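Assess the record.
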Amino acid sequence: MPTSFITGLLWVAALGSGLMAGIYFAFSTFIMRAFGRLKSTQSVAAMNAINETILKSSFMPLFFGTTILSVILMIVALVNWGAPDSGLMLVAGLLYFIGMFVCTAAFNVPLNHQLAGLNEDSTNAAELWHRYLRTWTGWNHLRTVSSLVTCGLCIWLLSA
């Protein structure tokens, strides 16, 4: 496989996973904390607004594009298995795919769907919001770390 293709792939994967790490980091470190300080009705409305808006934003091509890149990283690593650093490239792709994409699909998105169906006026809305906040943020921490480590591995591979 041409070295220039692998170099380009690693650059784009590093930039994409780094951008994703930054987005997730913002949610983990201050956005969700700020929502935790608001009334639950305000927090639910704000998070639902974000979840609706994000689906029609430039986040989605970045989200799916970096996921596709992680699969390509894994394929390139397996095709070049035995080459220097092919193992690290496989780890970078797997870590991103599982830690970011699978985590999002299996945990964060279903939680978002539950939140969208929450009646803000129900008697247990505040309890459900606080459970959502704790659980969603925990899974988001995993997405943050997975994206950041993938970015670091790609940069490491570029410097090797």
Observations:
- Helices lie at 3-37, 40-54, 59-79, 86-116, 125-159.
- The chain has a mean pLDDT of 97.
